[in-house]
Design brief:
The chain is mainly alpha-helical. It has one domain. It is 81% helix and 0% strand. It has seven helices and no strands. The longest helix has 27 residues. It is elongated, with a radius of gyration of 17 Å. The mean pLDDT is 89.
């Protein structure tokens, strides 16, 4: 399926189809990109400073995006589950994974570690709220429960990064 046919299908699809084919794979990517990159970024910042954290974050985001994109595309061709074309889902998942990791890497353009960590923490909070709002809108998860779930995941991962970065 080429990009033009995918866009035409998107315009005519019902909400359930859009959720299965685009929202859910994108949300999986956004959650993975946001959460899986936290520990390496925070550990690198504490061990080596902002320059290392920036490039570890960017490399982790891009690597995770490629990995998640391939994983999604190769896991299900869509015929059994009705989840749509594998390539489209893989592209959505991979792109959203990379986006999820890039935004909280950018604060490490700030040359001082502690202000960069504070700004990165704020960016992560915004990302987690965004994920919770998407889950509420498309997956009917209550905002309170969603915020609690993603905040718990984020806190555990940041704690791992801080512990490893302080070792």
């Amino acid at each position: 399926m080429d990009g033009v046919s995918a866009l035409a299908e998107l315009r005519t699809a019902d909400e359930r189809t859009i959720v299965l084919r685009y929202i859910q794979p994108g949300l999986v990517g956004l959650i993975d990109g946001t959460l899986s990159t936290l520990a390496p970024i925070f550990a690198a910042a504490l061990l080596s400073g902002t320059h290392a954290a920036l490039f570890v974050g960017l490399a982790t985001a891009v690597g995770a995006g490629i990995s998640m994109g391939f994983s999604e595309a190769l896991s299900d061709d869509g015929t059994e589950t009705g989840r749509g074309p594998a390539v489209a889902r893989g592209l959505v998942t991979g792109l959203m994974t990379a986006i999820g990791g890039v935004f909280h890497s950018l604060p490490f353009l700030i040359h001082r570690v502690h202000p960069a960590l504070v700004v990165a923490g704020i960016v992560v909070a915004i990302e987690l709220i965004t994920i919770s709002l998407i889950r509420r809108r498309f997956l009917s998860v209550s905002l309170r429960v969603s915020l609690l779930q993603v905040a718990l995941g984020g806190a555990l991962i940041v704690a791992a990064g801080v512990l490893l970065g302080s070792a």
